[in-house]
Amino acid sequence: MSRPIIETKGLGKDYTMGDVVVHALRDASVTINEGEFVAIMGPSGSGKSTFMNLVGCLDRPSYGEYFLNGENVADMNDNQLADIRNRLIGFVFQNFNLLPRTSALKNVELPLMYAGVKQRGDRAQQALATVGLGQRTHHKPSELSGGQQQRVAIARAIVNDPVIIFGDEPTGNLDTRTSVEIMALFQDLNDQGKTVVIVTHEQDIAEHCKRIIRFRDGRVVNDELVTKRRDAREELAAMPPPED
Fold first, then answer.
1. What are the counts of helices (DSSP H) followed by strands (DSSP E) for the chain?
2. What single string gives the DSSP state of each residue in 39-107?
3. Contacts of residue 206, Cβ cutoff 8 Å, sequence gap at least 6
């Protein structure tokens, strides 16, 4: 029986802008179990990014409860949130967020450095091998394609062996083939037992996941299993080879 990794109870976030209070997220009660692969969807301003920021411990809620891997994080201070992010969470962003003058290997080593790990090279090398970049360790981001840069970002996200991987529009800046390659990589990681949660506005990307949660006006409006899941690896096999 899978156990909850993410459990929110009446989670909400309000922002005050002058005399106006914006209810960015309202009473979100969501449970995501260990080993799930979930897409978070919704139009601009729906609350999906606010939800991601809260469950990713990048922000604190205005009210409600949030348990991550059994730990109550809703009332943690900034230092405690930073610690739990480093121990339990891996992030993948739309814009990769790599250090431009630093090699792929050194970029992947960063979470290990923050965690105080002294022997970092072998673990970073293994993470890059896992995402298919074992031969690109000394390349800087400018020497890599967009898809390769995103693979470096995924390697950085998994190097600390997190319990959950969050992707914020991880295919948003990529072409169709590269997007499918990244989704195939996420499916591989999920098959290995990683819990994966991504924010996306693309229905075809969401259909590679196992479950879709939809937000509108700050509320959860739909939560459904994907009945006809797309297999990114099969899609890649059916595509013509990339042009040189």
1. 8, 10
2. EEE--TTSSHHHHHHHHTTSS--SEEEEEETTEE-TT--HHHHHHHHHHHEEEEETT----TTS-HHHH
3. 39, 41, 200, 212, 226
State phi, psi for 66 to the nearest 5 degrees: -145, 120
Closest CA to 217 of 7, 51, 102: 51
pTM of the shown model: 0.93
Classified as helix, coil or strand, 32 is strand
69 vs 90: CA distance, rounded Å = 14
Q: Give the distance from CA 10 to its chain's centroid.
A: 22
Among 117, 119, 55, 110, smallest CA distance to 88 is for: 55
C-beta separation of 103 from 137 below 8 A = yes
Partnered with residue 213 across adjacent β-strands are: 40, 223
Whole-number pLDDT of residue 149: 94
CATH code that applies to domain 4-238: 3.40.50.300
Mean pLDDT, consecutive 10-residue stretches, the chain (244 aa), reads 91 93 95 97 93 93 94 87 89 91 94 85 93 91 93 94 94 92 95 96 96 97 96 93 70
Round to whole Å and give the CA distance between 27 and 219: 7
Residue ranges covered by each domain of the chain: 4-238
Angstrom distance (rounded) from CA 183 to CA 149: 14
